[in-house]
Every structure is written in structure tokens, then in C-alpha cells.
Amino acid sequence: MKDKAYKVLAKQLDISNKKAKELIDRGLVYVGNKKVKIARGEIDTKTKLRVKDIPKLDVIYEDENILAINKPAFITSEEIEKDSGYRLLHRLDKETSGVLLLVKNEEFRKEAIEAFRQGKVYKEYFAWVEGILPEETTIDLPILTIKKGGRAKSKISYSKGKEALTVVEPLEVMAKYTKVKALIKTGRTHQIRVHLARIDHPILGDTLYGGKEWDRIMLHAAKIELFGYSFESPEPDEFKKLL
Known about the structure:
243 residues; alpha+beta; 2 domains; 10-stranded mixed beta sheet; 3-stranded antiparallel beta sheet; globular
């Protein structure tokens, strides 16, 4: 006998259908090691489903101007903005973890946005990518972002794209994968993801841009510096477990 995946999960956990669908849509539900992607997809009612826990959301630093959050994967930046009551200074994709900044007053927000625009903000990411990256690489390719139906997808476009510069440095190699440090000089939507995919080293879990299926997109915002502030987020457990 079969039923929709979210209904099977709701019965197993004794939760509402709405809550069950939300867990699947977040990417937190698995059959064995395989992620359940379609909440309305039909599965055998006897299928044992597993729900991945979301790590606790921690405050890294807070003062009268800024709130720095250690964002876990599977929570959106917009949810954090809504819950905190402060405005986002930038965004991280749902499955990207790490330093997320929110601002507490309009004057500071305007100054910080200008610093981002002028490239005066240091942004350092870690990622696990497919293949062996042998040496430091600078990717200077313009990016065009197309938004449709509330979703965004970016691509390289020489005619319509905006300037985008990413410096990628290999740090470790494990089997057929490389851990890299990525420094972005600009802040285009999905910039690191698109640039790494273009050089044939897509991020693990980034199926939107050709990456291998994984528990999550293996991208982490490790460090941000601006106006004398310096915020860091330690690598999540799944980055260490890969080793």
C-alpha cells in the first residue's frame, strides 16, 4: 500500500501533515541515506523515514549595531530575520551554514551596504567540491541571475552578467574530493556555486548546478570582516565527518 510521503511521515511521528511536509521541503527527511525530495511523492506506507536534526542557532556577537548569527543549514535567512526582528545585511542559501549578519539601525545598515558594494567586506567560505583541485584558481566570470516563481538560478553570461570574482584555494584532498577556501570579492547570487561548477568542481550536494547528491550543500560561510568587526563560524560536524 502506498501514500504520499508527507502523510506517511505524519503518521510515523504523530505530527500534522503540514509539519511533515515542511520537514520534507526543508530537506531533512531520509530513507536510509537517500533524501526524500518530493513531499507529495508516493511511497510504501511501511517505509521507515528518518528526520535529520537541525543544530541549534547560536549568537556569535551582538551590540547596538549588529547581530552575528551562526546559521545552521536547512534554516532560511528570512526565517532568522523574522524571528530576530532585525534586518538582514546579506543572505545565505538555505543549505549554506555559517556567519549571517543582521543590522539593528538604519544608519549602520546604509554604511554596511555601501561597504559591501565597494568590495570592502572580507568574505571567506569553505566548501567540499568534486574532483581534485591542484592549485589556487581565480575565477573572473560575469554572473546573470534569473528569478522565477520565488526561486533564483544563476549562470555565466558575458553579455548580460554582472562582474563576479572568486579566488579558490585547495586546502585538503580526501578520495576524489577537495576541501577549498573561497574568497569572494563580489556578492552575486549563488556566486561560489556557479563559479565552482563552471570549472568542473561543483560543490557536493549542489544538484542545482550539477553537484553530486549529498546530505546538504557542502558550503560554509566561515568568516566575515567589516568596519573592524571580525566574525567566525567553526566548521559544522558534517564537514569534519567527511574526513
